[in-house]
Amino acid sequence: MSKMTVRDIDLKGKKVIMRVDFNVPLKDGKITDETRIKAALSTIKYVLEKGAKVILLSHLGRPKGEVKPEFSLKPVANRLNELLDGKVSFIDKTRGEEVEKAVESLEEGKVLVIENTRFEKGETKNNEELAKYWASLADIHVNDAFGTAHRAHASNVGIASNIPSFAGFLMEKEIKFIGGVNDNPEKPYSVILGGVKVSDKIGVINNLLEKADNIFIGGAMMFTFLKAMGKEIGSSLFEEDKLDLAKSLLKKAEEKGVNFILPVDTVIAQELKAGVETKVVKIEDGIEKGWMGLDIGPETVKLFKEKMANSKTIVWNGPMGVFEIDEFSNGTKSVAEMIVEFTEKGTTSVIGGGDSAAAAEKFGLAKKFSHVSTGGGASLEYLEGKKLPGIEAIVSKKKVTDKRYILAGNWKMNKTTTETAEFLAKLSGKIGNKSSYDVVVCTPAVSLQKAVDIVSSTNIKIGAENMHYEDKGAFTGEISSHMLKDINVEYVVLGHSERRDIFGETDELINKKIIKALKEELNPIFCIGEHLEEREKDLTFNVIERQIKEGFNSINAEDAKKVIIAYEPIWAIGTGKVATPAQAQEVHAYIRSLLAKMYDEETANSISILYGGSVKPNNYFGLFTKKDIDGGLVGGASLTEAFVELAEIMDLVIE
Ligand SMILES: Nc1ncnc2c1ncn2[C@@H]1O[C@H](COP(=O)(O)OP(=O)(O)O)[C@@H](O)[C@H]1O
Ligand SMILES: O=C(OP(=O)(O)O)[C@H](O)COP(=O)(O)O
């Protein structure tokens, strides 16, 4: 599923609240590694060039909700200001009047950095009120903080429930490379793991055993495996309580046909420090007492290179030895060099952040990899196959193949036939050729024939606002499905709240109409929704459950798939009050889960669920980008040019 990025939106004059990961190492107030600042620059520059105003958020360290000067973002903001030629100002607050004033007076093309987000207790708790506050400062959210993507915090996940969140370029690149190798690696796929603890990487190894062709192990973690295999490892580091796990991972690798390649020699010493005597020993000869393995040996380097040679994808996480000390750095350096050599020949290479990234940097090789992740913990969790909340919260594009998306207008008792003809002619010219979703216009009965004629050479479909369940008879004022079919009407709105409330339509009656519409091959747009009192009494889900169960009564799964549901909270219809995207998504997801229980997952996933109730161009993007919202049933805004703008939003979001 592809994520929407800053490229997908018009940024001119917009207030953008941007989350970056400027959690950089500081020593005596000085930044010792500015990789993360530089990595976010291209997004910041792009957004500024497009005429946006940027409010920048980041955490720094773990101040645990307290204001601690040593964790201030000021030095970072100063450095950013140098890198952005004086476009940056800093405010030592995380909220309040001063922040609001600074935002108010912020000019286009300028950046305001606010203080460390973790000075707020609510940040790491993903506090709703804090997220809402930060969201209120801006029009949109941009998330370029991949290093923080494994955290569900207010500044990355919480804000996204209130305003739409778009990926920055760094986030996009991380998703492309780390997500890409994880979801669909070009084979053969080799993974090199090192570092200290097997326990830190169990999840990763488990996941990789399902995907990789070769797993190479180095670093201190190799000794846990070697010990598990009965080798003599002297006083090398290993994890006693992970020996059984190591055995089972070795067994699993064999069962899965994954090559699990362990070192054949190691560089040993009696002490972990520079300048000590070192020896190279073969693993099969064992390490004598008092000596410990601190790097992989030259034969292992050769073996790794040979086995890695034909790889199309290589992921590296964790150094092969104590690379910080020259005597034990050769293994890590050699592995880095061999990956670079393969990369130059076309292999995709990814370093999963952390110490391996630092090692590549130390050897001057970092730029020669396809991608070096800026996230340690985040890339590890991503490689474990976990969904990262920071990425999940970014709006996704919708795939045409996944669902039938619909933009439906319900005109109610508005527009004469003359007005209908005029307006539909205009719409036909503007949105008459849509193919990735259905545009449906539901008009008063008297104008249906005219409407059908006008749109006949376009993709626009016409719907009625109601019908009776009988074919004909003594039902003064009613129209039947036969009459609609006769003039080529394709859709019909059933059970709209106004009909339920004003004309006393019951669930049972609506069910009869749905059954009839299905029988006649008319597409029913079945409306449901709760009153304000019901929501306030926490009865929303009860009301929805009743309406859905009764509405679908005695309809089989095949027919159910043809029903279009429109969730319209009654308190939001014509009142100007709109459900927040999060509120709407919650109910839509509930409806979907209910349908899955009544039928099955496949049926539930193929039913389109539209949202209705004060839908306007300024709120539709947030709604439509939600996972379970498949379009809109639009009242007032379908009577004007706004309907065209809603279609443009659909165009933007559907891939
Ligand atoms: N054989 C070894 N014995 C002790 N420490 C080692 C050994 N091999 C690697 N290390 C240390 O492991 C550390 C990195 O481990 P880890 O944090 O797991 O890696 P990463 O951050 O890349 O995931 C480095 O500081 C390195 O010195
Ligand atoms: O530096 C970070 O983590 P990382 O060192 O695992 O990449 C991120 O900024 C996340 O910080 P956190 O682990 O304090 O939540």
UniProtKB/TrEMBL annotation:
The record's GO molecular-function terms, alphabetically, read: ADP binding; ATP binding; phosphoglycerate kinase activity; triose-phosphate isomerase activity
Q: What biological process terms from GO does the record include?
A: gluconeogenesis; glycolytic process
Catalysed reaction(s) here are: D-glyceraldehyde 3-phosphate = dihydroxyacetone phosphate; (2R)-3-phosphoglycerate + ATP = (2R)-3-phospho-glyceroyl phosphate + ADP
Q: What is its main location?
A: cytoplasm
Residues noted as binding ATP in the record, renumbered to the chain: 201, 293, 324, 353-356
Where is substrate bound in this sequence? 21-23, 36, 59-62, 118, 151, 410-412, 574, 614, 635-636
Active site as annotated = 496, 568
| Cellular component terms per the entry's GO annotation | cytosol
> What does the record give as its pathway?
Carbohydrate biosynthesis; gluconeogenesis; Carbohydrate degradation; glycolysis; pyruvate from D-glyceraldehyde 3-phosphate: step 2/5; Carbohydrate degradation; glycolysis; D-glyceraldehyde 3-phosphate from glycerone phosphate: step 1/1
Please state the Enzyme Commission number of this protein.
5.3.1.1, 2.7.2.3
> Where does the record say this protein resides?
Cytoplasm
For this UniProt record, the keywords arranged alphabetically read as follows:
ATP-binding, Cytoplasm, Gluconeogenesis, Glycolysis, Isomerase, Kinase, Nucleotide-binding, Transferase
InterPro entries annotated for this entry?
Aldolase_TIM, Phosphoglycerate_kinase, Phosphoglycerate_kinase_CS, Phosphoglycerate_kinase_N, Phosphoglycerate_kinase_sf, TIM_sf, TrioseP_Isoase_bac/euk, Triosephosphate_isomerase
What is the role of this chain? Involved in the gluconeogenesis. Catalyzes stereospecifically the conversion of dihydroxyacetone phosphate (DHAP) to D-glyceraldehyde-3-phosphate (G3P).
Assembly and interactions?
Answer: Homodimer. Monomer.
Q: Which family does it belong to?
A: Belongs to the phosphoglycerate kinase family.
Name under which the protein is recorded: Multifunctional fusion protein
Species per Swiss-Prot/TrEMBL record: Tepiditoga spiralis
Which gene is transcribed and translated to give this protein? pgk/tpi
